[in-house]
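Recall the central idea of this unit: under ordinary conditions, the amino acid sequence of a chain determines the structure it adopts. In this exercise we apply that idea directly, starting from the sequence alone.
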Amino acid sequence: MTVFTKITLIQVIKTVAFIITLVLLIFYENLPKRTMALHPELTKNTFESVDEVIGGNSEIIWVDKTQLSWICHLRAGAPYPYCGISVLWSKPAAKQLDLSVYDGLEVELDYNGPATYLRVYLRNYYPAPDITDIVGKAKFNSFSTLATDFKRPTMIPFKDLRVADWWIENNKIPPKEIKTDISKVIAIGIDIPYPNTLGRHEFKLKSIKATGYYFSKETLYFSIILFWAAFIISEILIRQARLLSMIKVSDQQLKEFRTISELYREKAEHDQLTDILNREGLNRIVDDLYTKKSLNNYALLVLDLDFFKTINDEYGHVVGDNVLQEVSNIFKACIRSYDIVARWGGEEFIILFHSISSENIEPFAEKIRKKIESTSFVAGKVQNITVSIGATKIARSELFENAFIRADKALYQAKETGRNRTIIEL
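Accordingly, the structure predicted from this sequence is:
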């Protein structure tokens, strides 16, 4: 087979691959889904969660326990009244389900009551020292949504699950383990999130099933990029072989190849939504600064938008994305050329502020906080956005992770003491 024939064959393969890629991108939503029925198939063991165990006056009355129909009488008495149920796959809680291969839960629930929001949560096994309370120590991944959403089958996206702050605080969870995890789910539950409404709340859980595509859009996109990157590289190599057979290599083609490689690296280290560094990009810079023994010349600020979920709930995710973009622009406008800003995840950002003295941290952080507080977003549609900031000074030879723990602790204090403020932990 001649080089010319190989190149012609590659063109045919490229055309076929392009058509397949186009079909996958256009008809992804029509691809078959995998499902796992959880209720009523697996939910035979119930676990009541009610504040009477801490001296509260709330109670659960079962209408039909086998069909998971119950009434929560939420009454005053406990500092934080609560009432709900969990269902286990087995007793004791030994059976674990890996739901990480699914996209979310499809829930059919009849609800009648005064609550504005209802919460669905997944308890994931966590190897805590206290093995006598497996359910109580299990990671609390939850999602709250409007009670009116349950007038029809409701989809709970796993990507929107958040680990409860109280669980992180009570169990002293390190930062690297606070992300959501649904790979070893031992229970699923429904309750009324705080602040809640006292009164009579009627529930009847009809069905729950995990559902999702056999591969996510992200996996599809990554596979397509990987395939086309490999395909392009292979094609370049074949063309280089042809040029080498003619004892001539094109300098221009080599430059283009280096440009493509740099572009891929640039895209991999930047957040596509806000066009600032992502976590990977920040980690590369932090490693470089630490190697050069320059990391201690910076202060670390962890910034988290207050009540950001309400923006998504009230205006939709498109407006929420616009807010994140505009907030990122404010950060970029406030920093200097030798400061560093990155999106850490969700509505949380990190700024490395070049400052030898810790006295400069608070004025800089307050400038940002006040700027966010005084700005109207999305052409005036969204107002009264605030940000809580935790900050610290990185010590000489200190690891970034240790400084982050202090700054994150300060951020938590800012949240707990009313939000929209700066706390510095030195």
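Residues 217-245 form the longest helix (29 residues).
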